[in-house]
Amino acid sequence: MLFISLALQSFAFRAYFDYRVFHAPGQGPYVEFMTSFDGTSFELAPNGAADSLYQSKVQMTLIVTQANVVKDFRKIIVDGPSVSKAEPADFFSLERFILPNGTYNLEIEIVDLNSSTQLPETLVQKIVINNSETTPFISDIEFVSAYSKTTDQNAFSKSGYDLIPYLSSYFPSDVKNIIFYSEVYNTNLYPGQDEAFILVTTVVDKFLKEVPDSKRIKRLTGKDAISNLMIVDISNLPTGDYKLRLEAFDRSNTSICIEEREFSRNLIQIVPIDQQTVSAETVRLSFASFYTNRDSLAMILQSHLPIAKSQERNTIDNVVPTADLETLQSFFYSFWYRRDQQSPEAAWKKYEQQVKDVQDYFGTRIKKGWQTDRGRVYLQYGPPNTRVMRPNDPDYWPFEIWHYYETNDGLHDRRFLFVNTTLGQDYELLHSDVPAEPKNNDWPNLVNSRSMNTPSDVNRSSNAQSRDPQSGDELQELWYTPH
Questions:
Q1: Cα distances (angstroms) measured from residue 325 to each of 288, 296, 332, 361
Q2: Which of 219, 244, 292, 302 has the most CB within a 10 Å radius?
Q3: For the chain, how big is the Rg over CA atoms in Å?
Q4: In angstroms, rounded to a whole number, what is the distance separating the alpha carbons of residues 119 and 116?
């Protein structure tokens, strides 16, 4: 099964799209198409009621095709909640399509019906369905932002609950739990009707190592379909890239089926400054004592942001601007001692040279090299193994594709796409396949479109790329096979 998360964005509105594949015993596969509309980006109009409130109104068209033949079609009107004009709210749509196994294209068109100037926004997404009729399997994993027991059946009702989708795989610090929904199918075939088995939920890191205390076990019995709504505590899960793994085992501990979904976590833990510093005597005898100008050292510490951990970034952003010289020296020494206890000064000198390099490579009149997207990526992940540069191609905005065989933090075969829509010196990061980095599923069209304004007008919260390495398009060829 394939997880795709997309975003549509023009200059006026934003909408985020995701789909999940499930199975209805006796009927076959069905797909849930979920859309979240950013209420702040749609026009509001009076709702016509006596309460003098306002509503957004969106027309959404969904067309499913296979080999250029329309298999299903739906045009719906989605009304936002009634709100005051000063307090717009997000709203959702969920549509279910019953589709046999196969490969399809879904075309989505969104129109803001309250706007007389906004043009329709359209994208086409490939969908693959491959559910088994004869062996156990687990549905796609659906992240949930909120749930409640169903009282009145509605579009969001499933298995006795109303499930409001969470259309992202990014979990910031203020999110303490992952709520997710899945279904297990065909365990009546194996291990057998009413036969015991277990469903194990774990979180694994990017090296596929199980996160301590993340394992949850459910004891179940074989049925044609079993719903599974669970909550996983991530309140202390460190910043990083992970997978949520569901795996079923029979009585002999043999794996029956498995399903995974990637997610990213950003946990900012505020650590008191005295826990990030060392004794005055240690600092006095170290390289940090050579830096005696408070303002200069504060600027140097700002350049550490590309490689700083979350608690260090918090200190640099919130403590460094007003801290005294001794505190800055202590933090400076501690920063590099944590990275190289044998030779913290050598580690700093190596990074200092890299900061100078990115200044030479990427610095502009208004940004230091480390402040640019290319500079930040260079410092955080290291120099790329290949760098495709197209500054003057008439068919595209100036762009660069960076490819890493392995990044500084152990990720393999990763890419970054930078675009320059101002035709100045700076390139902004538009898309990457590194989980924690910005993603935009429409990147081939955006780089190819001279009508695009700036990457800041392009959604940077989508979560997966649309893979089509056989497209024949030069840009996609360069992305998938950089040289």
A1: 10, 10, 10, 31
A2: 244
A3: 25
A4: 9
Task: Retrieve residue 30's tokens.
Answer: 């069905």
On the CB side of 239, how many CA atoms lie within 13 Å of its CA? 15
User: What tens digit of pLDDT does each residue of 156-198 get?
Assistant: 999 999 999 998 888 888 899 999 999 999 999 999 999 999 9
CATH code assigned to 1-131: 2.60.40
| Paired strand residues for 37 | 15, 91
Which of 30, 29, 33 has the alpha carbon at shortest distance from 5? 33
Indicate the residue type of 168: S
Task: Give CA–CA dist 110/282, Å, rounded.
Answer: 62
| Region label for 382, one of left (φ > 0), alpha (ψ between -120 and 50) or beta (otherwise) | left
CATH tag, 133-267: 2.60.40.3880
Cite the DSSP H helix spans in 303-403. 310-318, 325-337, 344-362, 373-381
Q: How many CB atoms lie within 10 A of CB 381?
A: 22
- Residue extents of the structural domains in the chain: 1-131, 133-267, 273-357, 384-480
Give the Å distances, CA to CA, from 273 to 37, 311, 321, 374, 420.
41, 10, 13, 30, 39
Rounded CA separation 436/445 (Å) = 22
pLDDT in tens, 122-156: 888 889 999 999 999 999 999 999 999 999 999 99
